[in-house]
Structure formats: structure tokens, C-alpha cells
Amino acid sequence: MIVEFYHLKYAQGGNVGSSIDNFYDVCGQVIKGCKWVGEFERIIQRLKYREKRRIDQNKASRIEYGTFKDLESIVPHANRMEKEFRYFIVQPGLNVDSPSDSVLSLLGSIDLYVLETTGINLKVIGSSRT
Question: Where are the domains of the chain?
């Protein structure tokens, strides 16, 4: 089973940017999220809690594929499944062809932290402006 974590900064007013502040926010998410690696059952419980809370508040489901019951059905089998965890930062405002030095430095530091903490290489998704 592949478990992927996608961290992204909400676009204020629909505008995405490459501000270093946006990267600090999303990198903070990544650091906080490292605690979930290896905690598969806790991840499922947290997803179930968040989904139930959304439904109770009459908000749309965030489950893109499958159902709430599918989440519940995974838990009894979790210990027997081989799992691979992946981490992504998604920042559409990032020009991957020419990121700023400050952004590169921050992303390099976060990549090293994630690698040393979890053994996972961080991947960054941006956009190309060529």
C-alpha cells in the first residue's frame, strides 16, 4: 500500500504565489506531518474523524476515491500490509525552472529533515513557466 502525503498552501483569493512565507507555512505542515509515518492505524482513525466531522457540518466529503466504509475496512488488515510512505510539497506558484535561492535553501533543509527523520525523500511539485 502506498500512503502519500500532499502538503500545499491554500491560495488566498485564488492567487498562488512563490512567496517564501508560503513555503514556510507548507514546510511547517511537512514537519508536523512527519509524526504520522509508521502510524498507519492512527492515520486512518484521523481520516475517519475528519471525514465524520465534515459530514456532521454538512460539508462535502474529501474522500476522492472509495468510501468512508472503505477506510474502516482497512484498519483490521493494516498490520499485515506492506506500506510505502511518500511526502510531497505542492506549490503551483513555484517556478521549478528558476526557484529563488531562499526557497531552494528552505526546501533543501526540509528535505534533509524529512529524510533524517523518516527515511523518505521529499518531492516538490511546482509549475514550469518556460
Answer: 1-38+83-130, 39-80
